[in-house]
Target: Acetate kinase
Amino acid sequence: MSARNILVINCGSSSIKFALVNEAQTTFPLQGLAERLGSPEAVLHWQFGDTKESLSLPGTSHQSVLSKILPLAQEAAGGHLDGIGHRVVHGGEHFTASHLVDADVLAGIRANAHLAPLHNPAHLVGIEAAMELFPSLPQVSVFDTAFHQSMPPHAYRYAVPEFLYTEHGVRRYGFHGTSHRYVSKRAAEMVGVPVENSSWLSAHLGNGCSTCAIVNGESRDTSMGLTPLEGLAMGTRSGDVDPNLHSHLARTLGWSIEQIDRTLNHDSGLKGLSGLSNDMRTLYEAHMAGHPGATLAFEVFCYRLAKSLAGMACALPKLDGLIFTGGIGENSAAVRERTLEHMKLFGFQLDAEANARCTRGVGGEIQAAGSPRILVVPTNEERQIALDTLALLDA
Ligand code: ADP
Model:
C-alpha cells in the first residue's frame, strides 16, 4: 500500500489553517492559511513544495474557500487523498477520543458550542462544507479536550455548588490535549521508556500556554480549565486572576462583561504586562536591552510557569522527564533556563550547550548529568490529527 495522505483542517471563525500530511514524509507537501474570511481582505496563502502562492478572495465564505483548498490538496496528494482530519476545540464530556464524523458527532460538537462559542460553530461550518464537497472521503474530528477526559474528579472539579457542574457543565476541561499527547508519546520514544509506564510534566508554550501531568499516556491534570484562559500567563491572556477581579472591575470601573472578557483574553498576559508585545522573541530582545516592562513580562511568565509545573507534579507517581514544546518552549533557551531556576527543589540542571542547541525544530535532551530529564520536543498537532484519522480508517 502506498503512503496515505490526510488533509488536516483547523477551521476558525475567520480563518482556515490546513496541511496535507503524508504518512511517510516528515514535512507537509502542502500547507496554508485562509484568513479574514468574509471580509473584503479575505486571502488564501499556500505553500506547495517550495512554491508559495496567494489568492485574494474578497468576501469569500468558508465553504467557497474550502472548495479551493480541497482540489489543491487532491493535486498535492497525487489524486489520492484518503481522509480529512478536523481539529475541534471543545468536545466537552461527550468525547474522550477522536471520532469518525457522523450525525451523532455533529450533534455532540453542536451541543458543546456554548462552551466554545467562537470555535465550535466555526468547526461545524468547516466539517459540513468538507462533507458536502467530498462526500466519499472519511472525516474525523480530533478534540483538544478529549485527552484530558482522563483527569480524576479532584483535578477537574471546581469548588463551586454541584448543580453548576451537573446542570451547566462548569468544570475544568483542559485544552492543547493533541499537543500534550503527541509530545509525551514522542518523549517516551526518544528516551526508550514504554509510554504505558511513564510519567511526564509537559509545558506547551505558544500564544496559548498550558502545563499537563501525563501518567501512562493519560492526562491527570492540566492548567487550563473551563476555558483556555485559566492557568499560565500567555501571549495576550491573563491566566489565573482572583475570580473576584471580575466583580471588582464591574463595580469600580463600571466595565461590562464583554469589556472584562476582552481585556483578560486579548490585552493581558505578556502584552498587558510589557505594554510592548505579545511575542516572546520581541520581549526577550527588549528585556536584554533593558526595557522594564519586557523584563517584568518575562519574569512573570517564567515564575508562573515554574509554579504551575511544580503544582502539576502532585499528580505524578514518578518523573521520567519535563517536556518543553510550542513556539516558546521549542525555541527559547532563556525561558527554559529561567523557569528551571525557580524549581530548585526538583534538582533540574541544564546542559547549557544542549539547551542553546535546541531551537528551530531541533529537539532532544538538555539536562546535565545527574539531573532529572529535561526534553525539548517539537510538537506536531497536524501529524497527530492525521495519525488519529488513519487509525480510525484502519479500524
Ligand atoms: P501558536 O500557539 O499560535 O501556534 P506558536 O507555537 O508558534 O504559536 O508560538 C508562538 C510564540 O513562540 C511567540 O511568542 C513567539 O515569539 C515564540 N517564539 C518563536 N520563536 C522564538 C524564539 N526563537 N525565541 C523565543 N520565542 C520564540
Remarks:
- The chain has two domains: 5-143, 192-381.
